[in-house]
Amino acid sequence: MLQKLTTVLILALAPFAAAAQWSLDSCLQYALRHNHQLLAALESNQAAAREERAARAALLPTINATGQMDYNYKIPIQVFPGELVGQPPGTYIPVRISTPWLANYGLEAGVSLVDAGSWQSVKLGVLQSQQQAAQTASFKVLLERNVRQSFYDMQVRRQKLHITQEQARSYAHMHRLIAAQFGKGLIDKIALNQSQTLLTNRQEAAQQAQTALQVARLTLKGWMGYPFRDSLQIVTDTSLEAPQAPVFDPQYLPGFEAEQLKTQVAEREWKVARSRWWPVLSASASYSRLAFGSSFDFWQQGDWYDVGTVGLRLRIPLLSARELFHEPARRKLLWQRSLQEFAHYRQTQEQSYRQEKLQLQDAWQSVQAAREKIMLAEQNVQLSLHKLEKGLVNMIEIRQVTEDLYQAHQDHLQAKLGYWQHYTTLHYLQNRP
To answer: In terms of CB atoms within 10 Å, which of 37, 78, 150, 188 comes out highest?
Structure first.
């Protein structure tokens, strides 16, 4: 009984689920929550932030607990001259300097007092964390652009499917009229075969449009992180916005901050390598307790002796050709290279912006011209249909006007597709809030 009720409920809700249509904003919001690449980038942000905190933690004091137990199956000895205890010259006396069992436990602590390299590493970690966050933000903008472009592509593909199906139905009507003329003996078999070929071409175009729509839907689902098996229907919107190109500003480029931070990271890596010239001063302290014995239970029977030390450690680099000369020089060259790459990035992105701006204007004009061609082609098809209804069959004219209408629609849809591609790319290159 429960299973039947569940089935009835599913069937009742199915029409509402099928009727649900996704707007562009809902597709974008879904992609920002479910795209796996973006989620992985967000995890990388957290990892980079953790690395930054780890670099800062290197400046804090370190405290370690120590413990050790040893068994000397051969007790070490120290040899002393026999003259020290009144023996003849040239003789030696071996003296054991340990017991079979010995152990110690205690604490060790240390802290860096002067360490330029560690401070530079902290600054490098901050820049790397910012760079990772900027790269994630850049990918987020790229993802939004791809979702937009896929959304518009799916709209155009769906419109193309509707048009090709309508053309197939329209020509099927014309073919029936031609077949009727053939049945009356007014045209020959050649004209009928030519008409059948045109009908087959229109039906094949409709099938290809159906496949293209399915591919476009899969592409949109992929960018959204949407389950491929679930249905996805988008709203119908065939309107085009008049092209309005924003004023170019390099700071609004999607990867500007990430590319700029790349040069800063390269500069900081050079400073980290150069900091190896500086001395390192650290303080250390330790406290431990020692015990000795001749049996395993010595730690219960023997006495424990306290040992404590406090001191400073100074390390001054004097000679290391690789770390003190070659590595800093290499890092400086890499930094200078990153500056040139950043300048090249700005130049190529501005070039792309200007090209997209010109191509957007051209696509808009192509859309307007294609609309006029469609109007003329539709008039020609209607005039040809009127002739056909009167019994006047001219296959050359019918072929030409139907092909003209089909090509006009194809040009119009291709121009719209190009318009949306240039529109989304142009606004991607100037990602203004």
So the answer is: 150
